[in-house]
Description:
The structure holds two protein chains of two kinds. By secondary structure, chain A is α+β, with helices and mostly antiparallel strands. Chain A has helices at residues 6-15, 68-83, 90-101, 148-152, 161-186, 197-203, 217-221; strands at residues 17-22, 28-32, 38-42, 48-52, 58-63. In chain A, strand 2 and strand 3 (38-42) form a beta hairpin. In chain A, helix 1 runs parallel beside helix 2 (68-83). The two termini of chain A are 35 Å apart. By secondary structure, chain B is an alpha+beta fold. Chain B has helices at residues 2-10, 30-40; one strand spanning 44-49. The radius of gyration of chain B is 20 Å and the shape is globular. The N and C termini of chain B lie far apart (48 Å). In chain B, 29% of the residues are buried. The mean pLDDT of chain B is 75. Classes of the chains: A alpha+beta, B alpha+beta. The interface between A and B is large, with 42 and 30 residues.
Amino acid sequence: MIFRDEAVRNVLRTHFECAWESLGPVPQVRIDFGGGDVLETTLGGNVLTTFCLSDGTPFDVLPGVVLPEAYARAAAEACTLAAVSSVRTAAEARKHLRDALRPADSSSPVDLGVIDLSGVQVFVGSTEEPSSVPSLDVTVSKSFGEAPIHASLPPPPSTDPATLLLGDTRKVQSTLRPAARAILLETENARTPADTTPAIFRRVLKIDLEDRYLGLRGVLTGQQAGPPTGR
Amino acid sequence: MIPILLASLLAVPAEESTTPRPFDGWHESFEEARDAAAVSGRPILLFELFGRLDEERC
Lengths: 231, 58
């Protein structure tokens, strides 16, 4: 849905070298309740977008799924950061990101979900606030602290997709992206997305990429996750 | 044989869709994108997911 949006496609096609990589097959969940009642679904929605300079060093991230308008804006902001003339390295780009995230009132804590590029004189696309992008919600989403398996499961099919995507966007902007950006900013020697992706998945999206069970085995069985023992 | 040849000559080729696919021009690895970016100078956008992008409803 995101990449079929015209605004998103225009920004990406014009300003980026775009790549996608699979982290593995889509995990399947099957719960047999007996009597022929079986629940089958997939663990979806755990995606990560990493913005990198042309040498591959990451300087901004966007975890999760958001509205196309929000995705296009994030991409435009990243492109603006990369285009700042003084940026030669990802460390400098991350410094610009940190500075852009710093509120005018320096006594206030940095809000890693809000980016202010109003002072940057580089134009890469529309800077208008998309009307359908939700306002930033500083309230920590209740679901963020819930069990990983619950967070990983797709929503019930009866729920309105547009409403769900709006909720996902708010969750990304209020909690997931700030947390992912914090990891990126603390990983100062990151040279490729591979240096930051595992930590962002583990700490923000609650998925352990180094575990064949993605860190969910203990959640599903009620046991502490241990080394893989085979199927 | 003749009817078959005639049919093949008269067959109208299936009309190819002119609508660009959303992932046309995407690289299928980060390294490939980095090589292209080294030439174009563009920043890189890497999208990581479970499954395949061209099979998902992204």
